[in-house]
Structure to design on (499 residues):
């Protein structure tokens, strides 16, 4: 794999990037397609530049956990398909896939985006469980933002399936009822390269980063989750700058999402 | 009675019948079975007299003696460097082929080349096991400093260079960038950041439209009226 590490660092000093964008620009086009799969209750395909991520939402009725007997639950799983990058191999999920799933999960879970109490059908016995599956179709960098955008768009477009009188679920028919989504968290990952802050990195930029911080925030700008990565530390100033930038970029992604879902 | 089934510059896939009868001869990337000639690969057909050959559209790079390639130093041994050439085969660069000057026996090898650095090298030997020997001793072979490296399909390299280097010289003269094309598909571009980006896009355009005709004119039109920056010196192929 080629890394133009020195050139990326050098250009950053002039505020330039290898592909001609400014440091805080997203790649174009940003495309969000919903209802791409009829077998899932909600599904999306999100494209940022050449990065493509698909998300699917499945709903099932399970027994609630013992400590939260009046609540449903959410589960997020991510898979890095070998077709999306020469570096991914088939097999059990590797560190990167687990991190991707957990960062996306934490943004949604900690924002309390879904009213889990409303998912409960019968306390201690039956509740809806939301399962989100993320698959990467092409990795050209910035999977975190694409995955978070895909997960949120899939949640917004999901509809409950019909429940038969005997309690079984008819997945072939959908009701008009949407998920009880009270907040809309979106994650934006900011990378620090040679002391400069980058938005929406390519694979080469991801490989030359010193540190990164994922900031998940809802539509009011409340931060729900953070995830730090990379080998170098971040100063307090860095973090406040990153948060400001991330909130601004989350607003941008949100307008793109609303445009697409209209 | 022989007949040709494909036309000139048809796209064929492995197993396609190209011709029937013994009047035609199988050329590169084709084979004869019975009295039929089949394609071995995905590519464009070319008919020259009685010989049918196929120009590949994709496929891995197969090392050949005399090829100039761009590789990355991945390891050092007692007397040589191991180089990643982007192929399935590993390449070795002996220390005496890495520099023209005298190397003392106790010298630190990382003063000559270091792990992670990119180099422009020539293939001097390929064994039957596809182990590659490299040399950096000829003019035009050097360490890669600055600029950017992009990867293209190695089968498109001839189109990027063009006839007698016509394509690459056009891009070089218009943008003032120095471009080194390795036969293994790595391209090193060095110039101003804006022009480097333009060259990257032009090369991607060639890669995408490599099977079309009149490509040099298309690239010329794509680059438009841009001027090379003052004082830029490019070396012709």
């Amino acid at each position: 794999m080629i890394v133009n590490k020195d050139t990326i660092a050098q250009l950053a000093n002039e505020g330039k990037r290898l592909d001609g964008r400014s440091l805080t620009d997203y790649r174009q086009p940003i495309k969000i397609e919903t209802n791409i799969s009829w077998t899932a209750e909600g599904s999306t395909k999100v494209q940022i530049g050449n990065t493509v991520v698909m998300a699917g939402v499945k709903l099932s009725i399970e027994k609630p956990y013992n400590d939260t007997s009046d609540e449903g639950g959410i589960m997020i799983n991510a898979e890095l398909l070998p077709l999306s990058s020469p570096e991914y191999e088939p097999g059990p999920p590797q560190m990167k896939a687990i991190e991707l799933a957990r960062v996306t999960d934490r943004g949604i879970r900690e924002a309390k985006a879904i009213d889990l109490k409303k998912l409960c059908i019968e306390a201690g016995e039956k509740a809806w469980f939301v399962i989100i599956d993320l698959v990467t179709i092409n990795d050209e960098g910035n999977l975190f933002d694409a995955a978070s955008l895909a997960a949120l768009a899939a949640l917004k477009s999901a509809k409950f399936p019909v429940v038969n009188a005997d309690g079984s679920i008819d997945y072939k028919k959908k009701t008009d009822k949407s998920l009880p989504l009270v907040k809309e968290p979106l994650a934006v990952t900011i990378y620090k390269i040679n002391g400069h802050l980058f938005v929406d990195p390519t694979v080469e930029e991801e490989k030359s980063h010193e540190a990164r911080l994922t900031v998940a925030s809802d539509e009011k700008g409340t931060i729900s989750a953070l995830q730090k990565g990379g080998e170098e530390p971040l100063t307090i100033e860095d973090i406040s700058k990153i948060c400001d930038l991330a909130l601004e970029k989350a607003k941008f992604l949100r307008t793109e999402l609303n445009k697409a879902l209209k | 009675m022989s007949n040709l089934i494909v036309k000139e510059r048809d796209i064929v896939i492995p197993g396609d019948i190209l011709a029937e009868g013994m009047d035609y001869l199988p050329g590169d990337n084709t084979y004869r079975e019975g009295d039929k000639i089949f394609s071995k690969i995905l590519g464009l057909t070319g008919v020259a007299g009685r010989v049918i050959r196929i120009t590949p559209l994709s496929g891995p790079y197969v090392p050949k003696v005399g090829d100039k390639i761009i590789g990355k130093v991945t390891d050092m041994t007692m007397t040589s460097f191991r180089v990643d050439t982007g192929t399935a085969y590993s390449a070795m660069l002996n220390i005496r082929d890495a520099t023209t000057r005298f190397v003392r026996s106790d010298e630190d090898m990382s003063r000559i080349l270091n792990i992670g650095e990119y180099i422009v090298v020539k293939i001097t030997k390929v064994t039957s096991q596809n182990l590659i020997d490299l040399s950096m001793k000829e003019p035009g072979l050097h360490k890669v400093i600055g600029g950017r490296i992009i990867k293209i399909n190695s089968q498109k390299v001839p189109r990027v260079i063009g006839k007698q280097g016509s394509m690459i010289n056009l891009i070089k003269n218009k943008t003032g960038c120095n471009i080194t094309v390795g036969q293994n598909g790595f391209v090193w571009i060095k110039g101003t950041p804006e022009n480097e980006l333009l060259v990257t896009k032009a090369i991607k355009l060639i890669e995408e439209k490599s099977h079309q005709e009149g490509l040099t004119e298309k690239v010329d039109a794509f680059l438009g009226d841009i001027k090379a920056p003052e004082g830029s010196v490019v070396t012709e192929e």
Summary: The domain at 148-223 of chain B is CATH 3.30.1370.10 (Ribosomal Protein S8; Chain: A, domain 1).
